[in-house]
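Design job #97: recover the sequence.
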């Protein structure tokens, strides 16, 4: 079995007894080759992390705001929906819902400065 080097020359694949064969997906022997699926996975991970952060931020804001203005309880249901979407691995939808909660919280803070800054 052979692989091509960076200059398109053939590189032999060496197998030593008792050791696994070299992985042909390894581009330099140090780092796996990055393909489109890995880029998509990285993008999904970024959205997942953003959704988690916005959900946590919204929860903390609601927790601090409820004693000051019980009316903000109307944001609990949309936040729970965002959490359910997150749990179902629908990260983009979860992020969209959680951002809507934060935007509403920002508008409420603008109207009632007694509320914490979201």
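Job complete. Output follows.
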């Amino acid at each position: 079995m052979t692989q091509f080097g960076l200059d398109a020359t053939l590189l032999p694949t060496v197998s030593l007894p008792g050791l696994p064969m070299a992985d042909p997906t390894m581009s330099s022997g140090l780092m796996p080759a990055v393909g489109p699926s890995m880029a998509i996975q990285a993008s999904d991970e970024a959205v997942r992390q953003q959704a988690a952060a916005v959900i946590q931020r919204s929860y903390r804001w609601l927790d601090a705001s409820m004693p000051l203005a019980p009316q903000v309880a109307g944001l609990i249901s949309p936040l729970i929906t965002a959490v359910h979407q997150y749990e179902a691995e629908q990260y983009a939808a979860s992020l969209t819902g959680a951002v809507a909660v934060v935007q509403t919280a920002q508008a409420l803070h603008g109207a009632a400065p007694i509320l914490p800054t979201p």
